[in-house]
Write a structure and sequence with these properties.
InterPro entries: AB_hydrolase_1 (IPR000073), AB_hydrolase_fold (IPR029058), AB_hydrolase_sf (IPR050266)
Order of helices and strands: HHEEEEEHEHEHHHEEHEEHEHH
Number of helices: 11
Distance between the termini: 41 Å
Protein name: Alpha/beta hydrolase
Shape: globular
Structural class: alpha/beta
Number of strands: 12
CATH topology of one domain: Rossmann fold
GO molecular function: hydrolase activity
Strand content: 15-25%
CATH superfamily of one domain: Alpha/Beta hydrolase fold, catalytic domain
Largest sheet: 8 strands, mixed
Keywords: Hydrolase
């Protein structure tokens, strides 16, 4: 997630993982600008991380609903399929250091949702369209060729897409794993405080004001931060993600090229989220096997702890990752890998 701001006054979000700009001093430095101290240099990386990203995916595009979608794949066609879906304002490479741990036993695909990463932008975004996009990617990358339907794994906003697809199209997936996914938006008092902050925010992207262009990679990386606000548990991972969140763009003064964020800054203005709002009965009926993996310190889960109704099926299996915030793959990547591998090995096909 980067520092570009969300639309003013829009309180319809299903969960709040949007990138938001704040003024210096409002957050601790390790939260406000976790990469600034490295001054554009790459933080040191452990060997496991170097080995994982050395397993390069095949990179390509799949067309869906007239949009070119960025897709990364690992593993052989003919093995059981896994589809990884990233969070809001993110991209397929958020899974590039996770997916290789599954490539020996699975055919793995990671997609960039429309309007994010290197995928094309749309005039309108909808949950139904995201579900169709996921199905198109699963078909095109051979995720059905392993003798069963693919398993979807989605983080945050991507978990919302997986949840929606599981509810609307259960025939398309073997199982669904949601990674730190929350619903319903913040309480009214938080919304009021956020609206007040938003009125003070500069550099808000609108239809006639695009995302900010930074003169150097260092300057852009210095403004990268995570949303909801949290420290970057492993700065090397945050740096890896941030660099792949940027693209070249003309500087605003016409003096050359700089760097800007890849995501469509107006996606939240153009997104129809009505299909994701839980009903008075507590949400849609879910028949797809589903599990939720969440961070022990996740702010997304605070709403549920405060008593907010959950659309999750009653009694749904949940797995807590200790010492992790919302972005578990940054805080505790190997613990997330271990949890996912254990689930895929023993659930949902374990004997009764």
């Amino acid at each position: 997630m980067a520092d570009e701001a969300a639309p003013r006054g829009d309180t319809r979000e299903t969960y709040d993982d949007r990138p938001v700009h704040t003024e210096p001093g409002q957050l601790p430095p390790e939260v406000q600008a976790p990469l600034a101290a490295y001054r554009g240099a790459e933080p040191p990386s452990p060997q496991w991380f170097k080995d994982a990203i050395a397993i390069e995916p095949e990179r390509g595009f799949v067309e869906s609903l007239g949009t070119q979608l960025e897709v990364l794949t690992w593993g052989e066609v003919g093995k059981p399929g896994l589809l990884f879906v990233h969070g809001n304002s993110a991209h397929a490479d958020w899974w590039s250091f996770i997916a290789p741990f599954f490539a020996q036993d699975y055919r793995v695909a990671s997609m960039s949702l429309a309007g994010m990463g290197d995928s094309g932008w749309r005039e309108r975004y909808a949950f139904t369209d995201f579900a169709e996009d996921a199905e198109a990617v699963a078909r095109a990358t051979g995720l059905y060729e392993g003798g069963r339907k693919p398993t979807y794994i989605g983080h945050s906003f991507g978990g919302g897409q997986v949840f929606f697809a599981a509810a609307r199209f259960p025939e398309r997936m073997h199982a669904a794993i949601l990674v730190d996914t929350g619903f319903g938006g913040p309480p009214p008092e938080e919304l009021a405080a956020r609206q007040k902050r938003m009125e003070e925010i500069r550099n808000i992207p609108t239809v006639d004001r695009p995302s900010r262009v930074y003169p150097t990679m260092e300057a852009a990386l210095a403004r990268f931060r995570l949303m909801p606000p949290q420290p970057a548990g492993n700065p090397n991972i945050a740096d890896f993600i941030a660099r792949r969140s940027l693209k070249r763009a003309p500087l605003e003064d016409g003096s050359g090229e700089g760097w800007t964020w890849k995501f469509d800054p107006n996606m939240w203005n153009k997104l129809d989220r009505s299909g994701m709002m839980p009903s008075a009965e507590g949400g849609p009926k879910i028949v797809t096997p589903m599990v939720h993996v969440f961070g022990q310190n996740s702010r997304i889960l605070e709403r549920r702890r405060a008593g907010q109704p959950s659309p999750f099926p009653p009694g749904m299996l949940e797995v807590e990752i200790p010492d992790a915030h919302h972005h578990i793959m940054i805080d505790q990547p190997l613990a997330l890998v271990a949890a996912l591998r254990a689930l895929l090995a023993a659930w949902p096909d374990r004997p009764a």
